[in-house]
Amino acid sequence: MIFITVKQEIFISHDGFLQRIWRESPVHSWLILTLITLDGRARKVADDLSFPNGMVITPDNATLIVSESFTGRLLAFDIASDGSLSNPHVPRLVHLLPV
């Protein structure tokens, strides 16, 4: 899965193959998120994900939400200014459409 941010950075979920190509640290989890920045650098920003199958960033560009197929849950991360992810949590959902 690939998601391009408004800053034109790229989040990619994958099994670690890209990290082996870019000769980063060994992969210790099944599925990870990698961030590719505008200068072409790639780094792992999250791991131990249970088959991420969709990503979205909130309108304020502060939170990345990932759907995990194997757990059937959404997992949210706070996005730092450098693209790093922190504070993984199940997001509180707000109904956006009137009932």
UniProtKB/TrEMBL annotation:
Pfam families: SGL. It comes from the Bacteria. Residues 34-90 form the SMP-30/Gluconolactonase/LRE-like region domain. InterPro entries: 6-blade_b-propeller_TolB-like, SGL. Coiled coil: none annotated. This is SMP-30/Gluconolactonase/LRE-like region domain-containing protein.
